[in-house]
Write a structure and sequence with these properties.
The protein has a domain at 265-402. The protein has 18 helices and no strands. The longest helix has 25 residues, at 2-26. With 438 residues, the chain is mainly alpha-helical. Helix content is 59%, strand content 0%. This is Coiled-coil SMC6 And NSE5 INteracting (CANIN) domain-containing protein. InterPro entries: CANIN_dom (IPR044276), FAM178 (IPR026161). It comes from Eleutherodactylus coqui.
């Protein structure tokens, strides 16, 4: 028991030393102002700086006011490393849950950077339990809230500072998988994807954000419950096909949940582009492949031009403008087709659907493209068609026809007078080496 108490005192001393070292590095004045704003001076007067409350409040201050909006980039990097170091030291105490920022803390950080509450949470049916009134602006940007709506996003803070927030959130999501509940993870993913679509964010940390979303997807406990709501929440973030591709690029393919989400979103986006709304997307593989074949039949560039000519807003556009826009839309649709055709099913199961997709690709898209030296964008679309077709052919190469067939179009003749051979009694499950003489 005494040994445990001694370890606790030593651990608290390490935390206190880290905070003291931090104050000396970034300047005593700035830290004292920030600490007083959150009421931590009370703990300092009482001599309870070693308490867990003071330590956690100190981490919250580092995250809310220093790591994200400190005017010096070099100092902000040091603050981030110190905050991660303090959090790592707290992991030695197994009885104490490490502090991680809440959804309110994250929203406050982005509000301090100049983002309005409605931009953070754009969907009315996915809103947190707090409102914009609960977001406290940091002291250095006290006058930011009055002009936030008219200013562009991140006009007050260097864009590189958001990378520190994303890095720390990814770190916390990895070491503490229970940092957020499922609904908070859903709201946070929608928030991050919405920020990624902002045009003012040219240096957005894509790789860090990619890793963060991967960790958040893995932390969802009731995936089957959250999954349908996440599908349609992400699909409502934009209506432009270029943004659809941009959103899909952030969905990780290294985990099964990410691949499932990416495949389903591709079908939703294709339905939105071709039909203007999203129909019910099936969850099983067979139905999804049938739907994909039906969607590809509507992807002729010439058909897209005719549909665009019917819109009143396109009446003033020339035929060349409509042709370019139609091929641009086809280019995005082909990227969605490529993602929607990916599957974890064995190649033998994918075979018949890949053959159907290859036929649809050549019949409806490749044959409809008329290359011309004056229209290089058509050649670019045709090159993408060739790459997708080549990938599907490679998958077909690693699969094989059904049992007993040399080719897909050949049916073996069965002699009814002869007894059935042992080969005919074998199930239709694929074998690794069907033609092995050994």
């Amino acid at each position: 028991m005494l040994h445990f108490c001694a370890d606790s005192v030593q651990m608290e001393a390490v935390r206190s030393a880290a905070l003291t070292h931090l104050i000396l590095r970034i300047g005593r004045g700035f830290c004292i102002i920030a600490w007083r704003q959150r009421g931590i001076n009370k703990h300092l007067k009482d001599g309870s700086v070693h308490s867990s409350i003071a330590i956690n409040n100190g981490r919250q201050i580092l995250f809310l006011q220093m790591v994200s909006i400190h005017p010096s980039y070099a100092v902000s990097v040091k603050l981030l490393h110190t905050l991660i170091e303090i959090t790592c030291n707290s992991l030695t105490n197994l009885q104490e849950k490490p502090w991680t920022p809440s959804l309110l803390d994250i929203a406050t950080v982005f509000a301090n950077m100049g983002i309005h509450f409605d931009i953070l949470f754009p969907l009315p049916h996915i809103r947190p339990s707090f409102s914009s009134v609960d977001l406290e602006p940091a002291l250095p940007l006290a006058g930011l809230f009055e002009s936030r709506q008219s200013d562009p996003v991140f006009s007050q803070v260097p864009e590189s500072q958001i990378a520190h927030v994303i890095k720390f959130l990814g770190f916390c999501s990895t070491i503490c998988r229970e940092s957020f509940c499922d609904l908070e993870i859903l709201a946070l993913i929608v928030l991050l994807l919405k920020l990624h679509l902002e045009k003012e964010l040219k240096d957005f940390p894509v790789m860090d954000l990619h890793c963060l979303i991967e960790a958040l997807l893995q932390n969802i406990k009731s995936w089957e419950t959250v999954m349908p709501e996440m599908f349609y929440a992400i699909s409502e973030l934009s209506t432009h096909h270029h943004n659809y591709i941009k959103l899909l690029q952030l969905i990780p393919t290294s985990v099964g949940r990410g691949r499932q989400l990416r495949k389903h979103l591709s079908l939703i986006f294709m339905s939105n582009i071709l039909y203007g709304n999203c129909t019910d997307i099936p969850l099983d593989y067979d139905s999804q492949m049938v739907l994909l074949s039906e969607l590809m039949a509507q992807m002729r560039p010439s058909s897209l031009v005719k549909e665009m000519q019917k819109c009143p807003e396109n009446m003033s556009k020339t035929s060349l403008d409509l042709d370019q826009e139609a091929y641009y839309r086809t280019f995005s649709l082909l990227h969605l087709v490529n993602d929607a055709s990916n599957s974890d099913e064995p190649p033998s199961i994918q075979r018949k659907y890949l053959q159907k997709l290859c036929t649809e690709l050549e019949k409806h898209i490749k044959s409809d493209i008329r290359e011309d030296t004056r229209y290089f964008y058509r050649t670019k679309v045709k090159d993408l068609v060739a790459r997708i077709h080549g990938r599907w052919q490679e998958l077909l190469l690693y699969s094989r026809p059904n049992q007993g067939k040399l080719h897909d179009y050949w049916q073996p003749v069965c002699d009814s007078s002869s007894p059935q051979s042992s080969q005919e009694n074998i199930s239709d499950e694929p074998q690794d080496f069907p033609y092995d003489d050994n």
